[in-house]
Amino acid sequence: MSVPEYVREASRETAHVHPGDKLSAGRRFAYVLLLGALTALGPFTVDLYLPAFPALESEFDTTAGAVQLTLTGTMVGFALGQLIVGPLSDMIGRRTPLLIATTLHLIASTCAIFSPDLAVLGITRVLMGIGAAGGAVVAMAMVRDLFAGRRLVIMLSRLALVTGVAPVIAPLIGSGLLLVLPWRGIFVVLACYGALILVCALFALPETRPKDDRVSSGNTSIRHRYRVVFTDRVYVGVLAIGAMTFSGLFSYLSSSSFLFQTGYGLSTVQYGLVFAVNSLGLIAGNQVAARLAARYGPQWVLAFSTGMLLVSAIAIPVCAALIDGPWGVIAPLFVFMTSCGFTLPCAQVLALDRHPDAAGTAASVLGAANNGIAGVISPLVGVVAGITGGITPLSMASIMIACSVLGILALWLVVRPRTLGQLSD
Predict the structure, then answer these.
(1) Nearest 5 degrees, angle CA 289-CA 291-CA 297?
(2) Which of 371, 363, 368, 369 is nearest to 71 (CA)?
(3) What is the dihedral of CA 181, 182, 184, 185, to 10 degrees?
(4) What is the mean pLDDT of residues 237-254?
(5) Percentage of residues in the chain with pLDDT exceeding 70?
(6) What backbone torsions phi and psi does residue 404 show, to the nearest 5 degrees?
(7) What's the rounded Cα separation, in Å, for the pair 365 and 84?
(8) Distance CA 273, CA 172 (A)
(9) According to the model, what pLDDT value does residue 270 have?
(10) CB 313 within 8 A of CB 249
(11) Which of 1, 154, 317, 401 has the fewest Cβ atoms nearer than 10 Å?
């Protein structure tokens, strides 16, 4: 199937100058820190309060399922917010949607502190998710405004590092906060984080989308921007790969506490160490992937990493059956998390590099799909556990295996690596 002309026009690079290439190493590092903080706002908003679930259940005299709905609402808001902010940032610039969204996050976080019941808390959580979406989308879009080709790989690998590690460490930080604060204190911390992001965006983050690059009034419809990205075969393929990788990751996150603490009897500290080790795998995967993708092409890194996702997911129940104790699960899990670190930045590069004129829209759909689909798929671990008699290495790995298979099919049947060339300089 041939690519429509407007997709080819949106993907041409020859007419664009990349101002990020002129930045000093110090300025690029500052951008990494600031945009990384923007990106982390979403995962911390979603996951920081997870350890407070028992306290919420007790204070509001409700069920665990009702408390879980506040998490679902947050992820739905986060996904919807990205779908709104992304196209707007393409049309009117990056700063204005970011400032509006972050202000909403700050107000909603403040309201959450004083929530009188679970219903009000649920509403504020939806609004917090929408507000946090601004940073997630705008950070990736700004990187695409500033960089292309191999340097884009390196910069996006830094953001992918935050995207992958933040959901893993956020519950650990939340647990630490609950040692010294009541559950409402977590929302005080999130409000302060949002306020810091707002101040930085106001005074330290310039507009990266020049007026000349914003689409003309005849091409500003959100429908047009979505058509641009969804008619690109490669974009749709890497969208599926990213979503399946995130779904496998969240399947692990949603079930690991039951598996390791209840199933294997690990203490809270030991469980935290398992998270820390897996975080190191994500970090290593991200950094190595950036170098390999710049040299060989992100599509070939994906060919390796998606295969390793499947192999390591299959190894989890196999090793658990052969090796007594938690190490039979921990070792292949480390490989799985490292493979996630390889996969996520390469999927982002292939998605954004093709759409410089629709970077906000492309980033928003990518983020919404990752979180929305993962939010739907990861609870399936509980469904499988109900059939198999509890959360075990097999029930957890079954969803991870299925996600890995779907990611591999998307790569070879939709993206088709052999049809893609190398990244430009």
Answers:
(1) 75
(2) 371
(3) 0
(4) 88
(5) 89
(6) -65, -40
(7) 10
(8) 10
(9) 79
(10) no
(11) 1
The Cα–Cα gap between 347 and 179 comes to 38
Q: What pLDDT, on the 0 to 100 scale, is given for residue 18?
A: 67
Tokens coding 251: 């399947």
Joined tokens for residue 302: 């994906």
Name residue 352's amino acid. L
Amino acid at 268: T
Task: For 206-237, write each residue's pLDDT tens digit.
Answer: 888 777 665 543 445 667 778 888 889 999 99
Structure confidence at residue 214 (pLDDT): 58
The amino acid at residue 63 is T
Most confident stretch, 61-70, 90-99, 307-316: 307-316
- What are the angstrom distances between the C-alpha of 365 and each of 28, 162, 210, 414? 26, 18, 22, 17
For the chain, the distance separating the N- and C-terminal CA atoms, rounded to the nearest angstrom, is 28
Helix (H) or strand (E) segment spanning residue 123: helix 118-146
Tally of CB atoms within 10 A around 176: 12
Can you spell out the DSSP letters for 196-255? HHHHHHHHT----S-GGGSPPGGG--HHHHHHHHHT-HHHHHHHHHHHHHHHHHHHHHHH
Helix orientation angle between 268-296 and 327-353, rounded to the nearest 10 degrees: 40
Tens digit of pLDDT for each residue in 363-381? 888 888 887 788 788 778 7
